[in-house]
Amino acid sequence: MFKKEEQKYDTISYTSEEDATLKEILLDKLNFSVRSLSKMKKNQTVLVNGSFKKPSTNIKKGDLIEVKIEEDMANFMAQDLNLDILYDDFDLIMVNKPPFIVVHPTKSHNINTIANGITDYIIKQNEKVKIRFVNRLDMNTSGLVIIAKNAYAHYTLSKDMSDDKVAKKYITVVKGIVKENFGTINEPIYRADEDSIKRVVDKRGQESITHYKVLERLNDATVLEVKLETGRTHQIRVHMNHIGHGIIGDELYGYVDENLISRQALHAYILEFDQPRTKENLKFKAQIPKDMQELIEKLR
């Protein structure tokens, strides 16, 4: 596995395997966006065999292409939040987000966010990178969050996410006994009111596919492993409500009992994908948090 000290995280090197234009290689082989190409041309940050070349340049097999990735730190307040950092390389950071913490600052939550904690961590690592979130979780959902350190990694991972090349699995505890051991919910999700955050199943919505597997049946509750094929806002919460098994603790769509758990029992526990630069397969697993473990024990 590549380590940060083994390769400069701010330079991507690629030896051409065929004759093509530089633009074709940057877009098709290295997964840069068209917007990134314009920035490279303006800042002269793409080199061929050591010299700056325009995207229209013809490249021959064996030519060495180097792209410098220059980033400015995002303007987030640094806060030591003792985050659970599971992985860190030259392109990304994986953090296990606890419940009750927002990923990105908002008007109502402008401090004590994952962005604040990651900023503090990056500064202490003596790095200068811009924080870009590849995925986000609701404040009351716990689990794995990917932070990209540069535009290339963010674009590549986001594209893999949208192309269903990232395996995303969750653990949730729902109300009632789910009878089928396995199931798939293929129902479109729609935001009926722009002034509301709530979503509904509606034929006017976007295609949304959720697969589930029963892990354990409890006392009027079921522990499920859920795999997302699409990534709509509130998808698991909406789909579980739709089949009559709302998530325990979910104030918007599920079943609330403060004596059981004080937030929705939903945890993003597995992410598997290819490292954007080395293409090494990476798989991360975040253990079920204490409050969900206690909930399961109460319901056994």
From TrEMBL:
<dbReference type="InterPro" id="IPR020103">
    <property type="entry name" value="PsdUridine_synth_cat_dom_sf"/>
</dbReference>
<dbReference type="Pfam" id="PF00849">
    <property type="entry name" value="PseudoU_synth_2"/>
</dbReference>
<dbReference type="InterPro" id="IPR006225">
    <property type="entry name" value="PsdUridine_synth_RluC/D"/>
</dbReference>
<dbReference type="InterPro" id="IPR006145">
    <property type="entry name" value="PsdUridine_synth_RsuA/RluA"/>
</dbReference>
<keyword id="KW-0413">Isomerase</keyword>
<dbReference type="InterPro" id="IPR006224">
    <property type="entry name" value="PsdUridine_synth_RluA-like_CS"/>
</dbReference>
<feature type="domain" description="Pseudouridine synthase RsuA/RluA-like">
    <location>
        <begin position="91"/>
        <end position="242"/>
    </location>
</feature>
<comment type="function">
    <text>Responsible for synthesis of pseudouridine from uracil.</text>
</comment>
<protein>
    <recommendedName>
        <fullName>Pseudouridine synthase</fullName>
        <ecNumber>5.4.99.-</ecNumber>
    </recommendedName>
</protein>
<keyword id="KW-0694">RNA-binding</keyword>
<dbReference type="InterPro" id="IPR050188">
    <property type="entry name" value="RluA_PseudoU_synthase"/>
</dbReference>
<dbReference type="GO" id="GO:0160140">
    <property type="term" value="F:23S rRNA pseudouridine(1911/1915/1917) synthase activity"/>
</dbReference>
<comment type="similarity">
    <text>Belongs to the pseudouridine synthase RluA family.</text>
</comment>
